Amino acid sequence: MRNGDQNVAVIGAGIAGATCARALADDGWSVALFDKSRGVGGRMATRRVEIDGANGAKHTVRFDHGAPGFDATSPEFASFIELAAKNDLLTQWTPRAEKNGAADKSLMWVPFPDMPSICRALTTDLPVRTNCTIDALRPDAGGWMLESAGVALANGFSHVVVAIPAPQASNLLRSQKSLIAAHSANMLMLPCWTMMAVTNEPSPSVNWEIAHPTASPLAQIIRNDAKPGRERIDGLAQWVIHATSEWSQAHLELSPSEALSALQSAFADWLGGSLTFHYAGAHRWRYASPATSTPLTEPFLWDDSLRIGICGDALGGNGVEDAWRSARALSDFLINKVDGSQARSPVVSSSLAQTRTQ
Fold it and tell me: Using CB atoms within 10 A of its CB, is residue 205 exposed (0-12), middle (13-18) or buried (19+)?
């Protein structure tokens, strides 16, 4: 540990939490990550489902049901992407896009073999506790103690980084009467109902791989098995379909089965033709994306009296790159604040290379 007392808890192991933790660990901080999900990745998520193919053969389908991919607009993030691609963790995908009836092409980066692979690479040698919801922070003699369901999990943290959606961060920090809790409470986030489906192969006229419907409750339709490294199954098509934020907000409290039925009907109506569902499931992202993308002066929040910070896409824009930039800004701030050293290059450590063969 640098200076003997830099012991940080990072709550949330999506791209923001993983990035911030990696940068601090590379600078010599003692880091521990906590996440409520079964694995790292956050909204860079992939769900695995086993289905029956032809002749009863079993297939494992991977649905990238969170962020479908991302691009790089800043030189810093582009450098990070370049390193990840060199280590076979990312590949470019240029899907054929259907836009108002006209075929077009777009480009995005897609993690390989699944969406959380980048976060796994960043956290490969760090202590990560999953299936662990942190619902309270308590001051103790060594700094901060973390609690889950009233049970103390770990203590003695000199700093805390909160890398979860802004409304959840606000709830966690409200009892500390921190100004950053109040600030993050005003950062509204929009929901998204998502459908994962396997259907019969559509007609040959459906020659696109990504679509953005208009006048529909559906915002985006992705032919998921068209992505690099995703398994195709003869005679079947694999889809990830995101509803609009407006429809999702209006139907936020539907049961998964009710939302699924509505999304199946909307998809069948929009696609046209005969459609048979061999599998369908729904997932609600209550905090899918920021309601606004107005960046702050600094893309993170910091309470110096408490030594608690918040990072994430809601603080810098919207999407994977903005979550990464927010996390890097906070980690660089902490590194410079503690020891006055120059921030490291935005390309963080060799941990990306360590994970490529795992």
Answer: exposed
Angle at 18 between CA 252 and CA 342, to 5 degrees: 135
Phi-psi domain of 306 (left: phi exceeds 0; alpha: psi -120 through 50; beta: other): alpha
Domains of the chain: 1-44+116-187+295-358 (3.50.50.60), 45-115+189-291 (3.90.660.10)
Q: 3-state DSSP call for residue 288?
A: strand
Question: Residue 99: what pLDDT?
Answer: 63
pLDDT at 347: 34
- The two tokens of residue 55 are 């002749």
**Is-contact 133 11, C-beta < 8 A?**
no
**Pairwise CA distance, residues 227 & 76, whole Å:** 25
Cα separation of 334 and 332, whole Å?
5
Tell me what pLDDT residue 348 has.
35
pTM: 0.91
Q: Rg for the chain (alpha carbons), in Å?
A: 21
**240 close to 230: Cβ distance less than 8 angstroms:** no
Residue 4: the pLDDT is 52
Q: Cα 32 from chain centroid?
A: 19
Q: Give CA–CA dist 312/38, Å, rounded.
A: 20
DSSP-H helix ranges across the chain: 15-26, 75-86, 117-122, 166-173, 179-185, 245-250, 256-271, 320-339, 351-355
What are φ and ψ of residue 216, in 5° steps? -150, 155
Mean pLDDT by 10 residues, the chain (358 residues): 74 98 96 97 96 82 96 94 94 85 71 95 96 95 92 94 96 90 91 97 91 93 95 94 98 98 96 90 96 76 95 87 95 88 41 47
Q: How far apart are CA 30 and CA 159, in angstroms?
A: 10
Whether 201 and 236 have beta carbons less than 8 Å apart is answered as: yes
pLDDT of res. 104? 59
Element (H, E) at 186: none
